[in-house]
Amino acid sequence: MKIINFCLGILSCILCFWYVDTLIPYQLCQLEHDSLFVLDAESFFHSFCTVGGFGGWLSAWGLQSFALPHVGSLIFILPALALGVVMYILLCRKGLAEVFVPLTAVPAACLLFSQLDYYYSWQGSVSTLLALSVLAWVDMIGRMKLKIALFSLLILPVFWLLGSAVTVYVLSGTVLFFSRKTWPYATLPLLICMLFAGMVAYKGLSDSLYISVSPEFYYSRQLEMPLYHWLATVSIVLLLVVGCNLHDCTSRWRNYWRYGFLGMIWLLNGSLFYHYEPLFRNQKNQTLWQLNHYSFMEDWDGIIKMFPPSQKISNLLYMNYLNRALAEKGVLVDSAFKYRPYGAASLLVAENNTGAVRMLLSDVQYTVGCIAESQHQAFEAQTALPGQYGIQTLMRLTKTNLIQGHYRVAGKYLALIGKSLTYKKWALYYRQFLYDDKAVEADKELGDKRRSYRQQNNFSMWRGWRADLEAVLEANPQNTKAAAYLGISLLLTKDMAGFVRFLDTYYGTEALPVLPAVFQQAVLVAYPDNGERWKSFGLSSQVTTDYDRFRNLYYQTKNSFNQKDQMAQSFGDSFWFYLMFVK
């Protein structure tokens, strides 16, 4: 029986690892990008100065490895799997029959469900595991009076170091250590816990008494916590209540009944997890986090490969990431209409207060050279993060301050990043640019961005994004990315008058030495039947031939009920199709 439980337990662990490693790897990357583990004495001792600080510091140690392939997945599921082991140890000491051992997987699954919620901090799982581990250590003491005394004395340290995981500690300890005879005294640990929680809330160290003793302590304050995050706490306590009374009531069963019952429990655990896990995993968010990770790693080909050409992308956030990747590869203009865009928001979405959108806006602004606005959006993204700072935002703020010559501020960011284990080399590399304008200007990335930086003071986005792009091009006429974004934004809004001014201003300059095919298509619309203008813009014979074919097909299918579909087959990736059929 023990061998069967052991083998099935190992199989369950392998399946959990496969599940996380296959289905949510980029959620782990996002968690890593939104955090920063600082390894120094100051941050370590500071963790003892706040409620739950030590649990947060310890969880940050593990978070720094989440972006590592396979290793991050293993670390992510470790608290949930270890919780099952601790529950097994606690219940076996109470004489739990081997046939009921699979029930210890239920709290582990519930805790893993909570971890699948991006807004539930991994700290909650680590703290719950530590709280139960302390309880298992106390349970090793032989004398019951000493056990109860130590259990009661540790309530305050557990609460201060781990946070609301003390609720699991107190409720579980009450079930384990108090019998029917001593049950009236069981209220004492509960009163101690509530007293400490009330004092913490009264002193303003926690938002409320409820948050101090509930899983919401580990949940993002920007959202309302779903009630299912109580499942782990409730299942742990209920299993201890039931498990302490589930002795070997199956001793009279025949072996095949015992093995059949054992298999049924394992099958039930697996079925419940398989059936309910999609409720806790949002596939759209997984795609968004994958795009953000590729953007963070500057894997532009990875982003482009995610979207086959001619695929209509309805999500504007996805479209922003894709267009940024196309711009970084230098093919934005040629590919802009291959993915069926919709309006200027396909290039730059409207801002909101979520960190993901703010960081995306910062990325796009950084690509085109709007450095001040990129810094503004990165700072806003940082304030939206649960920990108030993350490595992705800090790296962006470091670069923007180096570009602007704010070396003292950049130095503070580099000092913080330099204390991390994972990004210490990155910080060391960028330290060479501090107080060295020549080094910044000579660097391929920083130098190009500095040339695009406007020296005069003004409000970013005050007159709109197009005005900012024009100012960037005025500062750096070689900025082809800004020219591509400006020209495409005019076409996406069907502003032909603005596009004509754009051509008159930038055609023939370093920003737009020749017209890409899409811009040539727009010239035919802006100057119909004007051969001289066509010649002055260097229109190719292929574009003019395609234009004649488009007009002929348009008039041939004018009275057809599915004209749009017929036109899309041959010209769906052209500006002409967008102009005529995309409302």
From TrEMBL:
Keywords: Membrane, Transmembrane, Transmembrane helix
Protein's UniProt keywords contain Membrane: yes
Transmembrane parts of this sequence: 67-89, 96-114, 120-138, 150-171, 183-205, 226-244, 256-276
Protein name: Transmembrane protein
Pfam families named among the record's database cross-references: DUF6057
Native source organism of the sequence: Bacteroides helcogenes (strain ATCC 35417 / DSM 20613 / JCM 6297 / CCUG 15421 / P 36-108)
InterPro entries for this protein: DUF6057 (IPR045692)
